[in-house]
Amino acid sequence: MVWFLIPLGILLIFLIVARWAFHYTFVRGHNDVLALLENTDHFLHPYADIIRENMERIDAAPHTVHTATSYDGLKLSARLYPAEQPRGTVLVFHGYRSTAQRDYATAVDMYRAFGFDVLMVEQRGSGNSEGRLITFGIRERHDVLTWVTYLNEQFGADRPLFLSGLSMGAATVMMSTALPLPENVRGIVADSGFTTPADIIGTVAKRDFHLPPWLTLPFLNAAAHLFGRFGLYEANALDALKSNRIPMLFIHGEADSFVPCDMSRRTFDVCASPKRLITVPYAEHGCGYLVEPERLTAELGRFFEENM
User: Fold this and answer.
1) For the chain, where are the E strands, in sequence order?
2) 42-77 burial string, b = 16+ CB within 10 Å, else e?
3) Is the pTM of this model over 0.85?
4) Fewer CB atoms near the end CB (10 Å): N or C, the chain?
């Protein structure tokens, strides 16, 4: 009789561990932004003052709050920061368990100076947007189309739109190119994006937990299917970009310790549309603009003008 209990015990242990791993990886949560900035060991600490100052400024700047309903019924939220004489809109998408305010605190004024309204999207499972799960761009890519459609309904489909994403936000906008984005989406900026959800999860698991991807990925994929009804291999940036028609600007720090710079080189190589890759020496994850603001401002301005 005891022998029959052994398989049940193994199954129970598997379910408990899978549930914990699923919650740890995919369930809504956020990093304490201020704590990260104060942590002297964190790569953002050298830029703490400028990030904090810009976060406070954009929180106080005039803006309007907008909501849209996702393809699966979630209420999504975003802030719209207007330019004085707008000639288009830039939609910005933040990274994994981050916030739009932190990731784009130093970029909003630059985009507005170029003449663009800025729609600061709060990704599903973050901020004021509904959602329990964070799926590394797999479901988030559909939200890109939701917000593009929303803006076209509000301002007309002849207004130029640009997509900009950082880290998971970059993967999100790259994956969205496989969807029927309208013609007025003129360009995409992908800053520090990863190639596939499986690639980045495997990289982090190996680096932080010394777990081999061949063990981690099948386990987490099974947990995602079991508890989240999605799979790690449903979508990725590499496959999406092979048929992309929208001009791309790739940005990545060469000293990125979270998403290897080689991932942007790989997405750049497969991208079928007009493209440019900018790498920034000594820049950590998502810090290219902070390290070389003048160079990145000039490159972004050139990209917008070429594709208006």
Assistant:
1) 64-69, 75-81, 88-93, 116-122, 161-166, 185-191, 248-253, 275-280
2) ebbeebbeebbebbeebeeeebeebebebeeebebb
3) yes
4) N
157-190 burial, b at 16+ Cβ within 10 Å, e below that, comes to eebbbbbbbbbbbbbbbbbbbbeebeebbbbbbb
Render pLDDT for 1-39 as a digit per residue (tens, 0 to 9).
566 667 777 778 888 988 999 999 999 987 777 787 888
**Residue carrying structure tokens 């999860």:** 201
Separation in Å, CA 267 to CA 236, 253, 264: 10, 15, 5
Identity at 81, one-letter amino acid code: Y
Give Cβ neighbours of residue 3 (< 8 Å, ≥ 6 apart).
none
Give the integer Cα–Cα distance in Å for 22 and 165. 25
As a residue count, the chain comes to 308
Cβ atoms of 173 and 202 within 8 Å: the answer is no
Give the integer Cα–Cα distance in Å for 91 and 184: 13
β-strand partners of 206: none
pLDDT in tens, 117-159: 999 999 999 999 999 999 999 999 999 999 999 999 999 999 9
Structure tokens, 46: 């050298």
